[in-house]
Design a protein that fits this description.
The complex is a heterodimer of chains A (59) and B (208). Chain A has 59 residues and is mainly α. Helices cover 93% and strands 0% of the residues of chain A. The radius of gyration of chain A is 24 Å and the shape is rod-shaped. The chains are: A mainly alpha (59), B mainly alpha (208).
C-alpha cells in the first residue's frame, strides 16, 4: 500500500474504532440497566407478596 | 453509510490532491456533524431556559456529548490529513484549526462544570447557560477560514458555490447525510439509555 493509502486507511480506521468503542460502551450500559431492571422487578415482586418472602426465608 | 463509503471509493474521482482527498469525504461531514450536535445542544439549552421543557437539559447534554465525540474525530482525521499534506500534525498559525480546538476544549469543559455540581435545577441552568455561550463560537469557527488571510486549509465552499466537481459534491452530500443519520441514531439510543437510567433511579427510590 502507498504512503497516501496508509493515511487514508488510518483515518477510516480511527473513525471505525471510535464508533465501535462508543457502541461497546452503550452496550455495556444497556446491559447494566437490564440487570438493574431485573433487580427492581424482583424487589417489586417481593413487596407485592410479603408472605411468600417470609416463607422462603424460613424454609 | 455503506452507500457513502461505496461512492467515496468507487464513484468519486481522484483530483490533484490524490488519494488523500478521500479523507475529505469523512473529515468535513464529521466536522459539520459536530457543529450540528453543538448547535442542537445549544437549542435544547435555550428551550430549557426559555420554556422550561422537561428533559431538555438531558437532551442538551447528550447532543453536546456527541458533539465532543465528533469534534475529537474531526481533530484526529484532520491531523492525519495534515501530516500527509503539510508534513506536520498541527498548524498553530491556522485560525480554522485553532478555533475548532478552542470550541472543542470549551465543550470538554462543559462536562467538568456539569459534574462539579450536584444534580438538580442549578446544575441544569448553569449547564444550559454554558452551552449557549459555546454556540456563539460555532459561526466564528465556521467563518474563520474566510476571515483568515492565510489559506493553508483548503476551501471546499466559497461565495461562488462548491469548489469541486458535481460527482464529488454528490458524494460529499451522501456522506454528510450518512454522518448526520449516524449522529441522530446515536443521539436517540444514548438519550433512551439516559432516560431509562433516570426512570430506574426514580423507581428504586420509590420501592425502597
Amino acid at each position: 500500500m502507498s504512503t497516501e493509502g496508509k493515511y487514508v486507511a488510518a483515518v477510516y480506521l480511527v473513525v471505525f474504532v471510535v464508533l465501535l468503542g462508543y457502541v461497546l460502551i452503550i452496550a455495556l450500559k444497556l446491559q447494566r440497566l437490564q440487570q438493574e431492571m431485573a433487580e427492581l422487578v424482583e424487589l417489586a415482586r417481593k413487596r407485592d407478596k410479603p408472605e411468600e418472602r417470609k416463607a422462603v426465608a424460613v424454609g | 453509510m455503506a452507500a457513502a463509503i461505496a461512492l467515496i471509493f468507487f464513484y468519486a474521482p481522484v483530483d490533484q490532491d490524490g488519494l488523500n482527498q478521500k479523507i475529505f469525504y469523512f473529515h468535513v461531514p464529521i466536522a459539520f456533524t459536530a457543529y450540528a450536535c453543538f448547535g442542537w445542544g445549544g437549542w435544547k439549552a435555550l428551550r430549557h431556559l426559555w420554556k422550561g421543557d422537561e428533559g431538555a437539559d438531558l437532551e442538551s447534554y447528550v447532543a453536546i456529548h456527541l458533539g465532543v465525540i465528533f469534534g475529537l474525530l474531526t481533530l484526529v482525521t484532520g491531523s492525519i490529513w495534515a501530516r500527509f499534506r503539510w508534513g506536520h500534525w498541527w498548524e498553530w498559525k491556522e485560525d480554522q484549526l485553532v478555533l475548532f480546538l478552542v470550541l472543542f476544549l470549551f465543550y470538554c469543559a462543559y462536562f467538568m462544570l456539569r459534574y462539579s455540581l450536584p444534580a438538580g435545577p442549578q446544575r441544569a441552568n448553569l449547564s444550559a447557560v454554558y452551552a449557549l455561550f459555546g454556540v456563539a463560537l460555532i459561526p466564528v469557527s465556521v467563518l474563520a477560514i474566510r476571515l483568515s488571510q492565510r489559506f493553508i486549509h483548503p476551501v471546499a465552499f466559497n461565495e461562488h458555490g462548491t469548489n469541486m466537481a458535481a460527482s464529488q459534491f454528490f458524494t460529499f452530500c451522501v456522506a454528510l447525510v450518512a454522518m448526520l443519520a449516524l449522529a441522530a441514531t446515536m443521539y436517540t439510543v444514548e438519550l433512551a439509555g439516559k432516560r431509562l437510567d433516570v426512570h430506574l433511579r426514580e423507581l428504586r427510590e420509590a420501592l425502597q
